[in-house]
Amino acid sequence: MPALVLLGAQWGDEGKGKATDLLGGSVDYVVRYQGGNNAGHTVVVGDQKYALHLLPSGILSPGCTPVIGNGVVVDPSVLFSELSGLNERGVDTSKLLISGNAHIITPYNVTVDKVTERFLGKRKIGTTGRGIGPTYADKINRVGIRVQDLYDESILTQKVEAALDVKNQMLTKLYNRRAIATGQVVEELMGYADKLAPYVADTVLVLNEALDDDKVVLFEGGQGTLLDIDHGTYPFVTSSNPTAGGACTGAGVGPTKISRVIGILKAYTTRVGAGPFPTELFDEDGEALRRIGGERGVTTGRDRRCGWFDAVIARYATRVNGLTDFFLTKLDVLTGWEEIPVCVAYEIDGRRVEELPYSQSDFHHAKPVYETLPGWSEDITKAKSFSDLPKNAQAYVRALEEMSGAPISAIGVGPGRDETIEINSFL
Ligand code: GDP
Ligand code: IMO
Ligand code: MG
C-alpha cells in the first residue's frame, strides 16, 4: 500500500490533523498537495497541543519526511514563524522538503484578498484573508511567483513587475488603495531566499523514487470536499482541489500509485465562512454542538456554524473521491442527546432528492429530511474497542456507515492520539 490520500469529507475541520498525525508514525512521507495557511489542523500529543497551518501534520512524527508539494501556496513569513514555533518546542523540522514549483503568497496577494472581500460586502465568501484565492488566480493567469524564482533576482523582478502592473491599477483606481512598489516586494521575497534554500527540492522526483522503493507516502488534504473549487459549493469554496484527484496534480504522482483514499468525517457537520449548509442549526442544539465540540476556527478564531450529520454530503464525498474508508471523528461530542437527527435526503421545491443537486439554486433551497436515531448518555471517551461503545452509539456508527457508502475504519472519541477506536486496521 504505497500511496494513500487522507482528506476532509465535509466542509473542513473534520479532524484531518489528528488522523494524519496518527498515521504519521507508520508512513515515510506526509505530503500537503494543495491549499496553504488557510488550513488549521490541530494535533494533540499527550498534554501538548499543536496548531498547524501550512506544514504537513506528519512533521510531528520523527521518522517521517514532511513535504510541501507543487500544488501548495506558500507564505514564507508564515512558514518560518510556524517552523520556529515548532523548533522552540523541541520539534525537529530539518527534514522538511518544499517544491521549487510551489507558488508564493506575496504580500500583494494578501492585500488583494482582503480588499476584494471588503468590496464584495454582503456577497463576500468569508475567506481566511490569507491571500489564497489571489495567489491561485495569479498561478492560473500565469503571473504567479514560484519558490524557484527567488533564485534569479532578475526574473523575480520581471515577474513581480508584471503581476503588479494590473494589480496596482486595480488597487489605486478601483479600491482607492496605495500602489505597491516592485522593489519593496522583491526585497522582501529575496530576504527569504537563503533561509528557504535548504528545504527546496524536486519533490516530484523525490516522491516518485520513494514510491518506486516501496516507501509509504501519505497525502494530506488541506480542506474538505465541499470546499473544493470544482466539486464544492462554488463560489463558497477555496481556490484549489482538496479532493483526491488534487493529490495527483498537487504532488506529481500518478493515480495508479494511490491505493487508499480515507475520508475524515465528523459525526455532525460544521462550516466556516459563507455558503449553503442544509443541516445548519440556529437553536440550542447548534449552540451545544459548538460548545461541546469546541467549534471555533483554528486559523481565524471564527465560531464554526454547526448542524446535524448530512448523509447526502457523505455519499457525495465517497463518490467524488473514490473513498475506500472513513475515519469518523468526534463521536464523543454527541453523548448526552436523547435523540440524534441525521439528514438522509433533501426536499427541494417539494421533491425528495437523494443525491447532492448539481444546481447551485437547488442546493440553496435544499431542506433536510431527517431520520432520528436514539442517543446515548454513557461517557465514551475511554472506549478502546467498538464493543465498548453503548449499543445506541454502535447503531449510530453503523447507520452512518450504511448511508455514507464506505466502511468506517476508525472512530475518534476525543482529541488525543489514544482516544481512537480502531475497527478495520486503520493504522
Ligand atoms: P482539521 O482542520 O480537519 O485538522 O480539524 P481541526 O483541527 O480544525 O478541528 C478538529 C478539532 O477537533 C480539533 O480541535 C481536534 O483536536 C478535535 N478532535 C479531533 N478528533 C476528535 C475527536 O474524536 N473527539 C473530540 N472531542 N475532538 C476531536
Ligand atoms: P481546515 O484545514 C474550514 C473556507 C473559508 C472560506 C473559504 C475560502 O482547517 O479544514 P480561503 O481563505 O481558502 O480562500 O477561504 O474556505 N476554508 C476553510 N474552512 N476549514 C479550513 O481548513 C478552511 N480553509 C478554507 O472559511 O469559507
Ligand atoms: Mg481546521
N- to C-terminal separation?
A: 12 Å
Task: Write down the domain tally.
Answer: 3
What summary fits the major beta sheet?
10 strands, mixed
Shape: globular
Q: Could you estimate the helical fraction of the residues in percent?
A: 25-40%
Radius of gyration: 22 Å
CATH homologous superfamily name of the largest domain? Answer: Adenylosuccinate Synthetase, subunit A, domain 1
Strand order of the largest sheet: 9-7-5-2-10-1-11-15-19-20
What low-confidence regions span 5 or more consecutive residues with pLDDT below 50? none
Q: Output the structural class.
A: alpha/beta
How much beta, percentage-wise? 15-25%
What integer is the average pLDDT?
A: 96
Structure in words:
Belongs to the adenylosuccinate synthetase family. Its cofactor is Mg(2+). The protein is α/β, with parallel strands linked by helices and about 425 residues long. The chain folds into three domains: about 5-100 and about 200-260, Adenylosuccinate Synthetase, subunit A, domain 1 (Adenylosuccinate Synthetase, Chain A, domain 1, 3-Layer(aba) Sandwich), CATH 3.40.440.10; about 105-195, Adenylosuccinate Synthetase, subunit A, domain 2; about 265-420, Adenylosuccinate Synthetase, Chain A, domain 3, CATH 3.90.170.10. The chain contains twelve helices and 20 strands. β16 (about 340-350) and β17 form a beta hairpin. α3 (about 105-120) packs across α4. The model has no long low-confidence stretch (mean pLDDT about 95). Guanosine-5'-diphosphate binds near residues 329, 333 and 412. Magnesium ion binds near residues 12 and 41.
